[in-house]
Amino acid sequence: MPDAHPPVNRIVVGMRIGLQFVFLALLVFAVAMSVVSGAADAALVICLSAAVAITYLAAMLVHGAVAVRLHPSWRWIWVLLLTAEWAVLVWLSPHAAYLVFPIFFLQLELLRPPFGALAVWLSAAWAVIALGLVSGWSIGGVIGPLIGAAVATLLGKAYNALREEAAEHERLYTELSGTQQRLAAAERDAGAAEERARVARDLHDTVAQNLSSIVMLLTAAEREADTGDTVRLARQTASETLAETRALIGALAPPLLDEHTLGGALRRLAANAWRAPGLQVDVRVAESLDLSMTLQTALLRIAQGGMANVLQHARASRAWIEITRDEGTVRMVIGDDGAGMDPAAVENGSEARRGGFGIRATRERVEQLGGRMHIAGAPGKGTLLTVEVPDERRAA
After folding, report:
1. For helices 42-66 and 10-36, what crossing angle results, to 10°?
2. What is the value of pTM for the model shown?
């Protein structure tokens, strides 16, 4: 997002500054010529020139600084006062007639059309008359002010067009800056929402699942005479849950993948966290399966979410996880021989209302990987979850 204010059109600024210097230079020229020529009213010319300079500079300063807060009638007062002082100065010193050109631009800028153009032509007419009566009539004395008025009128229109263009650019800049700020805020909100969804999925696939396993193990321990082995499994599962929770807080890879391959991590989970009375879990994943850490993490989370559903809802005697790779695609299958489910119920959301956040989280994770998910099954005939995602390393 830009921090600085957009620069004002340089041509507009250059013309304004240039006119100030031209006006002061012509005023000094008129005074100098009156003094050099030894005119009897040179002192009066100097005093009147000082008054003209003060009026002109005051008009420019106030117009540029606080004109927005003043009544528009002040513009008329400035223009009329300056024009009257200049008219008298031209009568005293014909060299002051050159000042009419910068005065033209002041009149065009401060007075609204058509009054600005009318003031320009009236000033030009007075310059012609004053030069004719004081210095004698000549072609140059007549044509010069008139040509100056015509040129000033044309340049004044161009100047106003540039000024309007600069104002439009500033308006567009303001709108663009506001749009960029809104876009940045929207991106931050979207990023925060995506991060919340990711954390929700990870917490569901790790902490929630393991805590659920602990509850089941401790429940079984209450029913057994010799609870040593069951309590040991509960303690071990709790330790793994604590380690994974810390990893989530630090936004690290799953602890199970820190020291194991994906197949090893799944087998460790099958032997510990997924161990339940009457359930056999088979892991069919080659130890040599080479996948990126991002894809391994995602598949591990998907497997944890799928097995959480098996442990909590399936009442199965056998479950299996199989991961294969073929032609740039990695396929994961999670199956069980349990109670099964109706895939249509998953699609219309009734399973989600029954606690199926894991299915929705798995679908979102697969979609983020650019893959697809399919659920097959029927009540009493088990469930088969198939996930296919692109293999990043093979695609590269």
Report:
1. 170
2. 0.42
